[in-house]
From TrEMBL, chain A:
The lineage of its organism: Bacteria, Bacillati, Actinomycetota, Actinomycetes, Micromonosporales. PANTHER family: BLL4140 PROTEIN (PTHR43227), DIACETYLCHITOBIOSE UPTAKE SYSTEM PERMEASE PROTEIN DASB (PTHR43227:SF8). Keywords: Cell membrane, Membrane, Transmembrane, Transmembrane helix, Transport. It comes from Micromonospora sediminimaris. One of its GO terms (cellular component) is plasma membrane. The keyword Transcription regulation does not apply. This is ABC transporter permease. Residues 88-304 form the ABC transmembrane type-1 domain. InterPro entries: MetI-like, MetI-like_sf, UgpAE/MalFG_permease. The chain crosses the membrane at residues 29-55, 90-113, 125-146, 173-198, 225-247, 286-305. Residues 1-17 have a biased composition (Basic and acidic residues). It is found in: Cell membrane. It is a multi-pass membrane protein.
Length: 313, 446
């Protein structure tokens, strides 16, 4: 580079500055052009709807009396609304149970698949990942039938031992019914992420550990898990956000058990019901934002407590 | 639970409906995507949403016979799905069809939002004599008429003859007898006697009305004030009665209209099914009465509280309404009056038990009255049960927030079935919940 510039020496300082300015401007323009398509879509389909929903959430529409500006009244109502609060409490409880279960299953499978190398591994990996490839709606419908006491397998299995099959769609057991569906669907996906992280670990570390006398279990516990901690935290955040926005599975199972799964079962379902069932778009928007607030608080708290471990944010 | 979804999903849906409104305008009023084929291309076209299973035939019959207007029909979903779409179109101010099928209990809900047109000025007098007074009352708010009655839902008790024979019981005439019979079957180790589905609150409402409850009083001249009586003694009694049946293990708590429930009906898990006149058609469509259970069903009048003063009630029933988004209400009203009113369509409707006709030409037709219903093993169900029930029906005042009321009721029935509250508590909570909603919506609750 230096030799090239020396050969082109005769240019004045002024000219140099001009060209540099032009290049920079052109570079800027090119940059904006590259960002442009994304930016337009981002603004049109994320920022604008969000702003519009925020705007809507500041109004109240009554059947009698019409629309009026109420500022944050809808939010005050949401945070004192038993439907919203019980829904939010449900998804938080669900997250506290479902996330550790999913991650534990995913981690165990990833460690096994990483440690064992045989022809069977690739096949297993695919099979474990498969539920994620099945659309949520189809997965939920399928489980709805599997849970059925008339034509599901549960009656036969429990009948074999002389017991009555549990009804996973009843209000006592719906928590576990959903827990099972969610774990089935997502554990494979998390497993793939963890597996990829495990594959990225330098194998010489294992060799060194073995030389120091570490067994397989110790390698897994003291080397593998600490090294994939960032990936673990990443999927924890994913699943936390996803679980707090729980919607698809309960909404589908509602067709089978409307009594158990009310229209306000989770905050997202409640927002949907308010907006599209009761035409209360204003309150529906407020609930969405209130839920956004809950998600933000939960994720922030989580990241705060794990701040030493993370490297991706 | 898609991780890629951000917290904006619902917000986006909300806003997207604003965007989608521009395009769903086409869905609503563009005649190019009809399910039926319009042959008379040069006539004006009105769009329509409806979900009767034989709607294709009904629309074709209408279009063939009519030289003024043609109907472009689509089925956008059954019941709640269609109402959600209609409700969204109302909020968006665009996207609704010209003519829409609605159940009668929803009419005030849409009427109060000025979403329906009073069609009494568009040729009502010509057809008034074709329907009974109860039918007109159900589609009216005050003197204004917001729909043309099509289908009624007189309630009756469908029962399994094989189970009744086996346990030597006769159809109960009163609710007390109903419980005794249920106990007898249970004591003999028989199946459940009936079912209390939390997802069919409209049925519970009808049963409460049968005992004398009047859930809503509402004068359209004063739309801002409404009477809400959901926890009067009659309402409590009926909830207590059903809660008691559940507690004693006499009836199930399965949601109805689900594969689970239907398979239960086929398997003979329920001795009775309290349902409306359209139920046999629905059950047949769902595959009931075609296998081992062929000819096992019969129907008897709805059990009464006081056999000396029988009260007949309705579940469901539907009508054709004209929406206020229609730019051609007069033509739309013509379609609403004419559709499903011709003999061929009506006959197809009642022979296949798709509708219980409210049109008097069908209701008084001896062939209809004397029909030996195949589902009921040749029983003359119309003559014996449904027609007398329909004739005795007096009509009901429905609420202008039907969706909320039914959702709230579903919640309470579900809790009652789970045993966490009693029927009286359910009624009290329902009253509180609905009153609060009504107040929030700007009503003065009396």
């Amino acid at each position: 580079m230096t030799s090239l510039t020396e050969k082109r020496a005769p240019r004045t300082q002024d000219e140099k500055r001009k060209t540099r300015g032009k290049t920079r401007r052109r570079e800027h323009l090119t940059g904006w052009l590259f960002v442009g398509p994304f930016g337009v879509v981002f603004l049109a389909f994320l920022i604008a709807p969000l702003a519009y929903a925020l705007y809507l959430s500041l109004f109240q529409k009554k059947l009698i009396g019409g629309t009026s500006f109420v500022l944050f009244d809808n939010y005050v109502k949401a945070f004192t609304d038993p439907s919203f609060l019980s829904g939010a409490w449900f998804v938080i409880r669900f997250a506290l149970v479902a996330i550790p279960v999913q991650i534990a299953v995913a981690l165990a499978m990833a460690l096994i698949l990483d440690a064992v190398t045989s022809l069977f591994t690739r096949f297993s990996r695919l099979m474990i990942f498969l539920p994620y490839a099945i659309p949520t709606v189809i997965g939920a419908v399928m489980w709805g039938f599997l849970y059925s006491r008339s034509f599901g397998p549960l009656t036969d299995v429990f009948g074999f031992f002389g017991a009555t099959a549990p009804d996973f769609l009843s209000s006592n057991l719906i928590f576990y019914g959903l827990l099972n569906i969610v774990t089935w669907q997502w554990a494979g996906y998390y497993m793939i992420i963890l597996y990829a992280a495990l594959q990225g670990i330098d194998p010489t570390l294992y060799e060194a550990a073995r030389m120091d006398g570490a067994g397989r279990w110790q390698v897994a516990r003291r080397i593998k898990i600490p090294l994939i901690a960032p990936a673990l935290i990443l999927i924890l955040v994913f699943s936390l956000i996803g679980t707090l926005q729980f919607f698809n599975e309960p909404q589908i199972l509602r067709y089978l058990a409307a009594g158990t799964i009310g229209s306000d079962f989770t905050p997202n379902m409640y927002a949907y019901q308010q907006a599209f069932g009761l035409a209360n778009f204003n309150y529906g928007s407020a609930i969405s934002f209130a839920l956004g607030g809950v998600v933000f608080v939960c994720v922030y708290a989580f990241l705060f407590f794990t701040r030493k471990r993370r490297s991706f944010l | 639970m898609k991780t890629t979804r951000t917290l904006a999903t619902v917000a986006m849906l909300v806003a997207a409906s604003g965007l989608a409104a521009c395009s769903s305008d086409e869905g609503g009023s563009d005649a190019s995507n009809c399910t039926n084929t319009i042959t008379k291309q040069d006539l004006p076209v009105v769009t329509m949403w409806a979900w009767y299973p034989n709607m294709q035939l009904v629309v074709d019959n209408f279009n063939k016979a009519n030289d003024e207007v043609q109907v472009c029909w689509t089925n956008v979903g059954q019941g709640g799905d269609q109402y959600d779409k209609f409700q969204t179109a109302i909020s968006a101010g665009t996207g609704a069809p010209d003519v829409i099928m609605v159940e009668m209990d929803r009419i005030p809900t849409f009427q109060i939002q000025n979403a329906l047109v009073d069609i009494s000025g568009y040729g009502l007098d010509a057809v008034r004599a074709n329907y009974g007074d109860g039918a007109w009352k159900d589609v009216s708010v005050g003197d204004a008429v917001y729909g043309v009655p099509v289908d009624g839902g007189p309630l009756a008790m469908i029962y399994r003859k094989d189970i009744f024979d086996k346990y030597e019981i006769t159809p109960p005439k009163t609710w007390a007898e109903y419980e005794q019979a249920a106990q007898k079957v249970k004591d003999a180790g028989g199946p459940l006697f009936g079912d209390l589905g939390a997802n069919v609150p409209a049925l519970m409402m009808a049963l409460q009305i049968q005992k004398g409850a009047a859930p809503f009083t509402y004068d359209p001249a004063q739309p801002e004030s409404i009477g809400v009586r959901l926890n009067d003694q009659a309402s409590k009694d009926v909830l207590e009665y059903w809660g008691g049946l559940v507690r004693k293990g006499l009836v199930g708590t399965q949601d109805q209209f689900t594969p689970e429930y239907i398979s239960g009906v086929i398997n003979g898990n329920y001795a009775t099914y309290i349902s409306a006149a359209w139920a046999p058609g629905y059950l047949t469509g769902a595959g009931v009465g075609q296998g081992d259970d062929t000819g096992t069903f019969a129907v008897a009048p709805l059990p009464q509280w006081d056999p000396n003063n029988p009260v007949q009630v309705n579940w469901g029933g539907s009508a054709f309404s004209v929406t206020s988004q229609s730019k051609q209400p007069e033509l739309a009203a013509k379609a609403a009056y004419g559709l499903y009113a011709d003999e061929e369509s009506l006959t197809d409707g009642w022979t296949n038990q798709i509708i219980f006709p409210l049109n008097l030409t069908a209701l008084n037709n001896p062939e209809f009255v004397d029909l030996k219903v195949a589902f009921f093993d040749g029983q003359q169900a119309n003559k014996e049960v449904y027609v007398p029930a329909a004739n005795a029906y007096q009509g009901v005042v429905y609420s202008p927030f039907g969706q909320y009321y039914f959702d709230a009721m579903t919640k309470q029935i579900s809790e009652m079935s789970a045993g966490s509250i009693t029927g009286s508590q359910a009624a009290d909570r329902l009253q509180e919940d609905v009153t609060k909603h009504a107040t929030e919506q700007g009503f003065t609750v009396q």
